[in-house]
Design brief:
Its main location: cytoplasm. This protein is an alpha/beta fold. It has 2 domains: 118 residues, Alpha-Beta Plaits, CATH 3.30.70; 153 residues, 3-Layer(aba) Sandwich (Rossmann fold), CATH 3.40.50.150. 29% of the residues lie in helices and 28% in strands.
Amino acid sequence: MSWSALQVATTTEAIEAVSNLLMEAGASGIQVEDATDFIDIDDEALAREGKILDLATVPHLTSGAQVTGYFPPNVNVTEIQLELTPRIQGLSEFGLNPGSGEITVNQVDEADWATEWQKYYHPVRVTHELTIVPRWEEYTPVNDQEKVIYMDPGMAFGTGTHPTTKLMLQALAIALRGGEHMIDVGTGSGILSIAAKHLGAGVVEAYDIDQVAVDSSQTNIDLNPIAKDVKLGVNSLLDGMDTQVDLVVANILAEVLVPLIPQAFMNLKPGGKFLLSGIIADKFALISQTLLDHGFKVDQTMRMGDWYGIIAHKPTNDED
């Protein structure tokens, strides 16, 4: 049985946006190749572990990025290609450089590819405490403090390893003290909600804009019993919510964060924390100023490559 692969030539900063567009178009999974993944490889650290990596022998991009969406048989990928092309080019209107945005279509055998892609997805330590492990891998934590998040990325790899997700996981490790009531906006794979439960959060609610994303989250939550009581649902940002909570987290594009910021302020208790990521460098000033304009105080900023994360809080009544 042949599947169709739509491969988009793009840039590092547009990876998440292009991935979202492919998923919205019906892709069953996403594969990402990013030249920057090879920039920060620490040869000395690998050598200390007895590993030798000769990049000259490893096929990889030397610039830019490629995002591939995999579509099941009997899907009209020509129509999807025509619809996606202007949408990808339109990302420039949101301050993202889509690169050439050229889309190529290939056919792949499902059985061969399903085996091949799993070679590239292995356990990844993303913080001092958190390690992401694909469901098919056997893994033993190195110590009692290490917490394992099992993920089933479906036909995708790299889940949890993008800089925006890493930044948010690090922010959670900093902000959580235990017992907090948290809302995860745009939960996607559910990884932030699972991590929050590992780090001691109390009640966790997770929402995304469509049922497909919520179903994906449920698959991963089912792999992590610690997160079994996470409440999942379909919702657009915080529309219609009047609950005040201790923590709101959101790893989404900056243009979507802007309307979320005043909502988050209304839905946080005094002293409540707001964790944001998905902020490309040239949108950092916009998000920072919007937070200040709506009453937030910025506690900490974090950066990884061209991406930023922010920890902010809603002032208490006795703060200036």
